[in-house]
Design a protein that fits this description.
148 residues, 20% helix, eight-stranded mixed beta sheet, 3 helices, alpha+beta
């Protein structure tokens, strides 16, 4: 099982999106996100991935409903946070990201399945935002337990 964490960053009616450079999703728009590393807190992974993919420092403000989906290589758990920009400095690794842009929510909603990565999930996340299904960060217990 793989855990993926990412952020949805709003500025008015625009959302910060990344255009993927990976072969399997080349040219598709997505919210900044990536795998949670072994031993890493989910909240820290969302902040790190957003910084790596956009160059922007963010502060998490809430969490959207958690999704799971199956791929041939295994189940994925997707945790998407809402976030505010602390420092906007758009820079990115062109081996991973082709472009970073603020895109109007209506434009995102009208993107085709070919243009929007993980179409069903990303459209659902936009709907959660519109319905204000944003939960407090306190649902995450970030204590590191020993497992004993």
């Amino acid at each position: 099982m793989v855990v993926i964490a990412g952020c949805i960053i709003r500025n008015g009616n625009k959302i910060l999106m990344v255009k993927e450079a990976k072969k399997k999703c080349y040219g598709q728009w997505n919210f900044p996100a990536g795998h949670v590393d072994e031993g890493e807190k989910i909240t820290d992974a969302a902040i790190r991935e957003t910084l790596e993919e956009t160059g922007c420092k963010v502060k998490l403000t809430g969490v959207l409903p958690i999704c799971s989906f199956d791929k041939p290589e295994g189940t994925r758990i997707l945790v998407k946070f809402t976030a505010d920009i602390i420092e906007e400095n758009i820079t990115f690794d062109t081996n991973e990201i082709l472009d970073v842009q603020w895109i109007d929510t209506d434009t995102i909603k009208h993107m085709s399945r070919e243009k929007l990565r993980s179409y069903d999930i990303n459209i659902a996340h936009l709907k959660y935002l519109e319905e204000n299904k944003i939960f407090p960060l306190e649902i995450f217990d970030n204590t590191k337990y020993s497992g004993k």
